[in-house]
Design brief:
globular, alpha/beta, Nucleotidyltransferase, domain 5, 10 helices, about 45% helix, about 240 residues, six-stranded mixed β-sheet
Length: about 240
């Protein structure tokens, strides 16, 4: 059976900002999916330890006051998310995340910030994965399609219903359904094993980053650098 007919796990974070090395987790969801339907959901609300900017609250609906009153300590939340994800990887279940380089880098930065074992450490030193990122795959298989590549836009393209955008659980489930829809439309993607698809995405992401960097430099930003690492950016020491 092709990978999109096997069990998959959706993962999504809603955060305090858009820079994964600096932003903090506000909400998170991990959704087990079989045949396109959720069979298990787990969610978290964290107290990020910093004030949530108004523009971030406007997107995901969580205020600083609510996060402080109802959220669990960020250290505990990051640890539990990491344990849950690596538990699935240990069983060779692929983790699906839309724009995985953002979510997994942010989680890894949180683990580092709180002095917790990394994802790789929890897997006895082996690399994380397999990861399936519909954002990266869609850009590779339909490179010249016009329009936005947000999760909402790509859901429309592939006929996936997104019940509540920027709700972590809804986004995690939609990411899995989009990944499956891409595999249904593009047979070469479906034919890959999860491990092969993971490796292919490393190359696809690097190609996109190089193209985008060239574009930015031609448009007047001669020193622009686009990180080509996937599914994790390189971390730098963090404080606070």
């Amino acid at each position: 059976m092709a990978w999109h007919g096997e069990p998959l796990v959706g993962f999504d974070l809603e955060t305090t900002g858009t820079e994964p090395l600096e932003a903090r987790i506000v909400t998170a969801a991990i959704v087990g999916v079989r045949a396109g339907e959720p069979v298990r959901r787990r969610g978290w609300l964290a107290d990020p330890g910093i004030r949530i900017p108004a523009q971030a609250s406007a997107i995901h609906g969580i205020s600083s006051e609510r996060a402080t009153a109802e959220g669990r300590p960020a250290r505990e939340v990051a640890d539990e998310i990491a344990e849950t994800l690596t538990g699935y990887w240990a069983e060779s279940v692929p983790v699906v995340a839309y724009n995985a380089a953002f979510d997994l880098t942010l989680l890894t930065a949180e683990l580092q910030r709180h002095g917790l074992p990394s994802l790789s450490d929890r897997l006895a030193g082996r690399p994380i994965g397999p990861v399936i990122d519909p954002y990266t795959i869609d850009r590779a298989v339909d490179r010249y399609r016009k329009g936005k590549r947000t999760l909402e836009a790509v859901c429309v393209e592939y006929g996936v219903i997104l019940d509540a955008a920027h709700d972590a659980s809804a986004d995690a489930l939609a990411a899995v359904r989009v990944a499956c829809a891409i595999a249904e439309r593009h047979a070469p993607v479906a034919a890959l094993t999860p491990a092969e698809l993971h490796e292919r995405q490393i190359d696809w992401y690097a190609e996109w980053a190089a193209d985008f960097q060239r574009f930015l430099r031609k448009k007047g930003s001669p020193e622009a650098v686009v990180d080509a690492s996937w599914p994790l950016r390189e971390l730098v020491p963090t404080t606070g």
